[in-house]
Amino acid sequence: MTYVRSQGFRSIWVKLIVFVVMVGIPVVSFFFVNQYRGTGYKGWRYLDTLGDPSFALDRQYHVPIWYAVLAIYGMATYVLWYTNGLVHSIGPLMVSSVKLLVALMWFPVFFYWEDIEATFTLSAVLWVVNGITMVFYAGMFQMSGMMLIPEQIWLSYITVWTYFLWDYDGDDST
To answer: How many CB atoms lie within 10 A of CB 142?
Structure first.
């Protein structure tokens, strides 16, 4: 009986560690990106020179919302893995990996290369890939797909926001 209890105890710790990693990686990576703000990083100065559309949220809300949607995304990924196991979750996790790569490309394109048109394109691609991820997650476990709805709403806002930034502050030569 002690052996069974010991296995169960280890299993709980493994699941807890996997949960912390799946939730923590997106949130921590965004935390490090946000740390550039106080260092005079040119991308943050660039953001401050852009005019916001009239419907735009105050920029102080962007970071907490990103943290929240990334944490929910990590939880949805964990729930998918926990309910279906790694072997059965490979397809949705591969689509999710594409989503993470596109999301990671968004930040340097916007903040470092200061290319609003490419940022809008990446935002639209991220919106589509997140929708595909929602479908894959919901096909495996409906709750996981539903957990990505707040992120889809946020990405809709970001896509429209970057379109208006591109429209207002893009190439003035035309």
So the answer is: 10
Instruction: Give the burial class of 1: count Cβ atoms within 10 A of its Cβ; 0-12 exposed, 13-18 middle, 19 or more buried.
Output: exposed
Q: Mean pLDDT over residues 47-76, rounded?
A: 82
Question: Which residues have CB under 8 Å from 26's CB, separation 6+?
Answer: 70, 71, 73, 74, 100
Q: Is 95 exposed, middle or buried (0-12, 13-18, 19+ CB in 10 A)?
A: middle
| Dist. CA 129–CA 79, nearest whole Å | 19
Its pTM stands at 0.77
pLDDT in tens, 7-50: 444 567 777 777 777 777 666 666 665 555 555 456 566 777 78
What's the gap between Cα 104 and its chain centre? Answer: 8
Q: What element of type H or E holds 1?
A: none
